Amino acid sequence: MSRIEDLLERMTLAEKLGQLTMTASGYAVTGPVIAGDSTESIRDGTIGNLLNMIGAGPVHEMQRIAVEQSRLGIPLLIGLDIIHGHRTLFPIPLGETAVFDPATWERTAREAAREAAADGLAMTFAPMLDVSRDLRWGRTAEGPGEDTLIGVLMAHAKVRGFQGDDPSAPDALAACAKHFCAYGPVMGGREYAAVDISERTLREVHLPPFEAAVKAGVETIMPAFTDLNGIPMTMHIPLLRDYLRGDLGWDGVLVSDYNAIGELIKHGVAADLVEAATLSLKAGVDIDMMAGAYRHGLPIALERGLVTIDEIDTCVRRVLRLKERLGLFDDPYRRGRKAEKADAIRQRRELARDVGARSITMLRNQNGALPLDPPPRRLCVLGPLADAAAEMRGPWFAASEPDDPVSVLAGLRDGFPGTGIVHATGAAIDDTDETGIGDAVALCDDADAVILCLGERANMSGEAASRAYPELPGRQEALARAAIARARARGTPVIAILFSGRPLVIPWLADNADAILAAWFPGSQAGHAVADVLAGRVSPGGRTPISWPRALGQVPVFYGQRPSGRPMDPKDPYTSRYLDVANDPLYPFGHGLGYGRFTYANLRLSTDTLRECDVVQIGVDVSNEGEREAEETVFLFTRDKVACVTRPLLELRGFAKIRLDAGRTGTVEMSLAGSELRFLDAGLRGVFEPGDVEVLVGPCADRAQLLGASLRQI
Ligand code: NOJ
Q: 507 with 73: CB under 8 angstroms?
């Protein structure tokens, strides 16, 4: 008999439910703390999984109680939100997405897994794969932006990175694709609010990244807190049981979000924990995180005949199988046994610096304001995010220390050693005091360039951080206006660096700063990454993975909108438009400048007809007409001109990178398979339809900047 079946035969009901329970934990000076409970529950087998324990010592201490002191000795599964690094932080996911490089996405996840596993952990609650087209939603910071294909590629890269080839390896973690599904379109962009979207949008936009995670072998999935068209995801039988387990044949572990089973009561679909637990169990949710609903509710549900012991056993089996796949039965201390070598830690920090710099997205650069090369004699650095190391971590920081990140100021002092740097905060991130602005901007007078470090506090994005006014908070715009006025009078360039977990609505700044960098939250090496870009040692490589609106009223504004029957025509008022703002975003998806200047020519296709089974090769010549070496990100879109249903105005099919010296021309080759052009017809069946398709290639999703060629689907 297998180990798992043998255990199942010997387990009491309480021990079984313990395996389906995950509880928050921590380590105080007095010893371990288990939320609302004690280590006794690990000893008696009624808590089988923990979250949030940090440090190999505490993790192993907990593991020892489970393995050596509980009746059956089943190891604990211990997880943490290792979202973009564990102790060393890489850029937040939205920032990292801007790098547009799946190999990098995988590498940072691999490094995060190594570092977390060295702390004894075996699971991360990542990657977050929620496509977000509403920047009010704070969790936009944690995801892959507005595009589904990017979500798909991110899913693959992150699952591979966290889990490696063998999830039982001492440096591998179980990944958790979350939040399944369609958490991004919460109403009004308000966190935890209801979701109401069409079946088409669900299937075309929100499900594919999760399908990709399943294909990549993801071990666990977390249902979203939210409801979808009236059914809370934590009890969603059609999607959890029929789609994930049925259609996709996935047999991994479903772990609820924090107290989400209990929240079925507030959703108004369960009267009490017994009903809530019943609903989740029936949908196949295996682990109850923090609701205590399975532990306390399922014994009663069983007695009342609402659930069967077979249903419970099925979940227990899946949890035990996961522990087995993670190698926890064979050696529960395999992770965290060996401390990491200093060299590995050093290399990881270098990677964080490199990815941090490459994630920085240059939105604007007038008259060559950047790079600051040769280095200026004097630099004036203003703003509340200049000397704000802890903020550089972003909304999730795992086991990192608040004072560990390199602040912008520290990075600039290191990166511009011969430059005199003066600094003042000028205004706080988020209060109404303007009294510091006058003195601060006076410092601009003697500077050769002014750097404004503006944006959000780290906790103004992420979970529970929706914003109805996603602008520069507090009096930061007043600071920017005063600094720009003062500097302009002397012809001094002003460079604004924005730190945020979302695009910000910055119409005034966009017209008035000489240069704007979206730095997102770059992580541990923030200051060095910023200095590398400002100094021109690295050409900014970021391309925005989400459109920046001109006005909040445009939201959702994203490149993949479907056409209107009355497309905007400036001469015709009865067309699709606003009275008070343009339709297009301020910065489109994919926008980002570098220190090169690229032009595109000679788009060519290997064929002008395409069957579903064919692949077309697409070539384009790219020239760097700028004065510095740089890397360009080349995007490939299609547009299905006539179809049986309306198709998006642009659909991303891929992207490629090319690095060119100044004055050089190179060729970018990409391919497009006919099967990628399948779409859902009126009955939501996948079809490949004959007809014309435009192939469009260029630097971003702005149609005017794309070269086009025609292809006939046959
Ligand atoms: C709630 C969040 O929604 C989820 O993303 C996270 O993994 C859990 N809390 C655990 O911290």
A: no
Residue 29's pLDDT is what? Answer: 84
Tell whether ligand 1 has an atom less than 6 A from the beta carbon of residue 130: no
pLDDT of residue 137: 98
Question: For position 401, what pLDDT does the model report?
Answer: 96
CB 282 within 8 Å of CB 262: no
Q: Does the Cβ of 178 fall within 6 Å of ligand 1?
A: yes
Is the pLDDT confidence value at 126 over 80?
A: yes
Closest CA to 64 of 7, 115, 120: 120
Looking up tokens 């060519």 gives: 604
The string of pLDDT tens digits covering residues 557-600 is: 999 999 999 999 999 999 999 999 999 999 999 999 999 999 99
- 25 alpha carbon to ligand 1 midpoint, in Å? 14
Q: Which of 22, 50, 257 to mutate to test the pocket of ligand 1 (most atoms within 8 A of CB)?
A: 257
Nearest CA to ligand 1 atom 9: 258
Residue 28 pLDDT > 90, yes or no?
no
- Phi and psi based region of residue 16 (left: phi greater than 0; alpha: psi -120 to 50; beta: remaining): alpha
CA distances 75 to 67, 334, 588, Å, are 5, 12, 49
Q: Residue 516: which residues within 8 A CB-CB, separation 6 or more?
A: 362, 363, 364, 495, 496, 497, 498, 506, 509, 510
Tokens describing residue 432: 């109404």
- pLDDT greater than 80 at residue 1: no
Q: Judge whether 452 and 383 are in contact, CB under 8 Å.
A: yes
Residue nearest atom 3 in ligand 1 by C-alpha distance? 257
Q: In which element (H, E) is residue 667 found?
A: strand 665-673
Q: Ligand 1 centre from 678 Cα, in Å? A: 35
Say if residue 56's pLDDT is above 90. Answer: yes
DSSP H/E element including 497? strand 494-499
258 lines ligand 1 (CB under 6 A): yes
How far apart are the C-alpha atoms of 571 and 329, rounded to whole Å? 71
- To test the pocket of ligand 1, the residue of 222, 253, 256, 261 to mutate (highest count of ligand atoms within 8 Å of its CB) is 222
Mean per-residue pLDDT, 212-230: 98
109 and 158 Cβ atoms separated by less than 8 Å: yes
For residue 632, list its beta bridge partners.
658
> CB–CB of 49/287 below 8 Å?
yes
CA 178 to centroid of ligand 1, rounded, Å: 9
Percent of the chain's residues with pLDDT above 90: 99
Looking up tokens 């292809």, which residue turns up? 711
β-bridge pairing 176-180 and 123-124:
unpaired
- 258: CA distance to ligand 1 center in Å? 6
Question: How does DSSP classify residue 305?
Answer: T
- In testing the pocket of ligand 1, which one of 81, 226, 233, 256 has its CB within 8 Å of the most ligand atoms? 81
Helix, strand, coil shares of the chain as percentages rounded to 5? 35, 20, 45
Pair 119, 55: CB distance under 8 Å: yes
**CA–CA separation, 648 and 562 (whole Å):** 4
Count other Cβ atoms within 10 Å, centred on residue 145. Answer: 25
Among 450, 451, 434, 452, residue whose Cα is nearest residue 490: 450
Check if 387 is active-site. no
pTM of the model: 0.98
Average pLDDT value for residue range 236-263: 98
* Token digits of residue 508: 């005034």
